[in-house]
Amino acid sequence: SSTAKIRSEVLTPFRSVRMFFYLAFMASGGLGTLIAVTQLIGALANPFRADEVPEILKGLGIDVAAVSIFAFLYSRENKAKNAQIARLSREENLSNLKVRIVDQKTIPISSLRGIARLVILAGPGSFIAESYKLSEPFTERLVERGVLVVPFATDGELPTFEFDESEDMKDLTSKRKRLWQLLPFNISEWSKWIDEQKKLANVSSDSPVYMSLRMDGRVRGSGVGYPPWNAFVAQLPPVKGLWSGLLDGMDGRV
Prior knowledge:
single chain; transmembrane helix; LPA1-like; Protein LOW PSII ACCUMULATION 1, chloroplastic
């Protein structure tokens, strides 16, 4: 999309300049090759110019090598550009997906940029339920790091999250509810996006997966199986305090 292309230019502002020079050098080398071939034909056809052949061949070899090198560099740069645009397009599609805050309004994921680090879970209800249980010891630290979970039950059997409403657990329960307050909205769109990600990653359609997003909405990492809550806690900086703004872009690779 045009937005993805613009973001790609912003992220790699000198790529277009490099690609332009690669093309210019290829054109220059191609012209040199054409001239050298013409000279070589003339030298081979004229016995009196036979001593020029080695020098012409040397120049021809340099031109061909230059064209080959810059063609390789251009091809590599173009592949990187296309891969980046494809990734940004997928992230743009993700940002347009909507979530529903429990018993409240529906918002697009893009509105959470700079506010939360989303962890998307996609799997059967049993996978969601177990992920919920495994997150409990890390609840407070996950909330401190701005983590919000989006559970997507691929079998349509989203479990009912049980919270301890006792007075002693009031503070922890409040944070548990905050951590698990989001639900996917428009299930068909979510299912389509998740299936596309699995195909691109060569993951079977029935495998439970997790995807974690950075504060800016970009995909930080993903994997098959339960999310590594302990790794999130270890690698992500708190969203409040001295280091929050400085380390927002250093979200680790989990």
